[in-house]
Specification:
Elements lengths: L3 E4 L9 E4 L2 H12 L3 H23 L1 H8 L11 H49 L3 H6 L2 H43 L1 H48 L1 H6 L3 H53 L5 H42 L11 E7 L5 E3 L7 E7 L2 E6 L4 E11 L2 E11 L4 E6 L5 H8 L7 E6 L2 E2 L5 H6 L1 E4 L10 H6 L7 H10 L3 H5 L18 H15 L3 E5 L7 H15 L3 E5 L11 E6 L2 E6 L1 H7 L2 H7 L6
Parallel strand pairs: 9-14, 9-15, 12-13, 13-14
Antiparallel strand pairs: 1-2, 3-4, 3-5, 5-6, 7-8, 7-10, 10-11, 15-16
Amino acid sequence: MAETRKVKTGPGGGGGYEKPKDVRGTFMRILSYLRKYPAQLTTVAVTMLISTGATVAGSYFIKPILNDYVVPYIGTGKTDMAGFAGMILTLVAIYLAGVVCAYIYNRLMVNISSGVLCQIRKEMFVHMQNLPIKFYDQHTHGELMSRYTNDTDTLREMVSQSLPNMISAAISVIGVFVMMVVLSWQLTIVVLLVLAVMMFVIKTVGGGASRYFIRQQRELGNVNGYIEELTEGQKVVKVFCHEAASKAVMDQKTDDLRDAAASAHTYANILMPIMGNLSYILYALTSVVGALLAINGVLDIGTIGSFLQYTRSFSQPITQISQQFNTLLSAVAGAERIFALIDEPVETDDGDITLVNAEIHPDGSITETNRRTEHWAWKVPMGGSFEYVELLGDVRFQDVTFSYEEDKPVLKDVDFFAKPGQKIALVGSTGAGKTTITNLVNRFYDVQEGRILYDMLPVSRIKKDDLRRSLGMVLQDTHLFTETVRENIRYGKLDATDAEVEAAAKLANADFFIRHLPQGYDTVLTADGANLSQGQRQLIAIARAAVADPPVLILDEATSSIDTRTEALIEKGMDSLMAGRTVFVIAHRLSTVRNANAIIVLEHGEIIERGDHDGLIALKGRYYQLYTGAFELS
């Protein structure tokens, strides 16, 4: 992964800047994407050479035009219009060919850059699907989105514009220099002396600009990310009257962006005038020296005219290269962030046990089948063969200790079991470790000590996709996609029929309100279901879990956003959904867990009580306090 380093000096009071460390490695990696377009790049190279060659050749034509068709006829009253017109037409044809070739290679580079960015975005997105949940816990949505927007945009500008312009300018500089040497080595020495001054200016001024363009890109990402997150959370901002504080943070971020941009553009904007004035000085010196050489008969007028044109063509590409170099480094900084995402370690999965459709025979034997039987089995490798274990939903925690951060345990020696078909309720204060238990069952995280058994098989041996297919989850934070209600429910089982979708909605008591939507089940939900109430969104999430028909259900505050009337309506449906399944319920409303087979009370990551409702009430411990209100859940 490419690294960055921070430096603390610079004009404009802008603080520090980030400078890409592995410029060469990142640049070579960008070029690896371009190698996938060999035919188009070959065409680009040929047309670029022709376009640049046309510009160089066009300047040379000044010499024969002046020497053969202008100077000889001065004061004679005669002209050779036919020859002069022929030279002009030839010059027009050369420039026209250059224009056509310039259009071709620029158009091709747009196609290539679009293809490169398309592939990079796909790689980022596909790679993100394989990253562990921990990665998303450590990065904000705005920060990740800036990789797809700001960083890819600078990369597009580099591939489609900066890189071709730099190559074209380099070819032009080489071609012009060669022609200047051919025309007059004496005047070329004058050019080289001024060129040394130009290079010193570019190194001094251009280097400063490149540093701050990189910092500007980083600050732009921070601003855009903050705007995106504040837009999503605008209701929260207004509810808590946090507008003033949000504005203060935004002011600080935009001030940082302003300082970086001011420093960057201060350098960049003074570079062009300095280089322009140096080019005028070069033009004047060349004119003076050329005139002296002409007076002494060393050079002719045509050579001087052509050389003067080359001096203009020589300084301009050098300035262009220095300016594009800033954009190039800015793009490399953005590419480093993109590749850092692509290089993030993916979620490891060393499981070898898979989930298969199974046929349960009368004698109790199990065989694998390709058709959906609504019976499932774990396919366990045993030497050179396989053993099939029926999926029942038996979940056991054995001395499990877990921490998200080192030396900060969230669970300590947790030991409990959930037999097939049991409803296990997890209660306790916020931060007690309830949701962590469900995250471990899903293998969103792996335990550091102890083990978790699923149907007496270590979950660490079960492939994560197969493990998660056997589980259904309804989370407190419901997320709905920009799709129809039908497709949002079908997300739980992609091959579900319309009848199965509607049956799941009825089971969750969501069918009634869905049919009263403008287009019923075909109503398109947008903005995470903003046109629905929170309770309605939760009902759709419950229907999504119902259509998946999993043997194990995890309900994390599944009814927290549903009023007591709606909760009563779906209670029977939930009971039907939970029948015959192992269910983990996390709830703050203790009235919803009274009928649980076992209630586990957690405190500071440890199980302090376990039993059914009546037993725990009789015990008059922490659960009793929570249930009677003597101790508030927080």
